[in-house]
UniProtKB/TrEMBL annotation:
Family: Belongs to the MIF family.
Reactions catalysed: 3-phenylpyruvate = enol-phenylpyruvate; L-dopachrome = 5,6-dihydroxyindole-2-carboxylate
Annotated InterPro entries: Macrophage_inhib_fac, Tautomerase/MIF_sf
Enzyme class: isomerase
EC number: 5.3.2.1, 5.3.3.12
Alphabetized GO MF terms: cytokine activity; dopachrome isomerase activity; phenylpyruvate tautomerase activity
Protein name stated in the entry: L-dopachrome isomerase
Originating species: Macrosiphum euphorbiae
GO cellular component, one term: extracellular space
Length: 131
């Protein structure tokens, strides 16, 4: 699982430990071990979000799945988005109305790390959590 958070908050406005805390939160939310997550923060970006330069956050989240290309469970995605929005609002002080989340699922056989696919890595970790 990987995520990128872009924001127009200055680096000094982002709490210490934010990326590690965010990774912990997402691992709990999606029932994944921290071994399979990577996060990136890009602060100080310029945004025009809904015609305003007020503080905002754009998050791109990619989750590996054993069941890619199946019908998307919109209710599950909404639960994830609600939880993530609440977390980001509390952690960064940005209103949920100024947070945009792009959620993607990819076949774990198409994502690699350390010369292997995530599907192979998961087979060594153990049973893949249910989605």
């Amino acid at each position: 699982m990987s995520y990128t958070i872009d924001t127009n908050l200055a680096a000094s406005q982002v709490p210490d430990g934010f990326l590690s805390d965010t990774s912990d939160f997402l691992c709990t939310l999606f029932d994944r071990p921290k071994k399979v997550i990577m996060g990136q923060l890009r602060s100080g970006q310029e945004f025009d979000f809904s015609g305003s330069t007020d503080h905002c956050v754009v998050m791109n989240l990619t989750r590996g799945s054993l069941r890619p290309n199946t019908s998307t469970d919109e209710e599950a995605i909404e639960r994830y988005v609600a939880a993530i929005s609440e977390y980001l609002q509390n952690a960064l002080g940005v209103p949920k109305s100024r947070i945009m989340i792009f959620y993607y699922e990819h076949d774990m056989a198409l994502i690699g790390n350390n010369g292997r696919t995530l599907k192979r890595i998961w087979s060594e970790i153990g049973t893949f959590p249910s989605d």
